[in-house]
Design brief:
The chain has 3 helices and 2 strands; from the N terminus they run H-H-H-E-E. By secondary structure, it is of the alpha+beta class. Strands 1-2 form a two-stranded antiparallel ribbon. Strand 1 and strand 2 form a beta hairpin. The longest helix is centred in the N-terminal third of the chain and has 10 residues.
Length: about 70
């Protein structure tokens, strides 16, 4: 299974993903993978979120199929 196939399956199951989650699954450069999906006709929704970290609150982007 390719990274793009994994992401499509993940998104179609109703789940979202962040860069950290993607990296844990072996997907590098999530934003680029999402751009590749968009080029193939998929609509990807990006939602900025703030999450707690040891450095305080940091901004991350959550991706989902839209």
């Amino acid at each position: 299974m390719t990274q793009l196939e994994y992401l499509i399956k993940h998104f179609r199951s109703g789940k979202s993903i962040t860069t950290l989650q993607a990296h844990r699954e072996g997907i590098c450069r999530l934003s680029e993978r999402c751009r590749e999906l968009e080029a193939k006709g998929h609509k990807i929704k990006r939602t900025p979120k703030k999450v707690a970290s040891r450095f305080g609150k940091v901004r991350v982007v959550e991706y989902r199929i839209g």
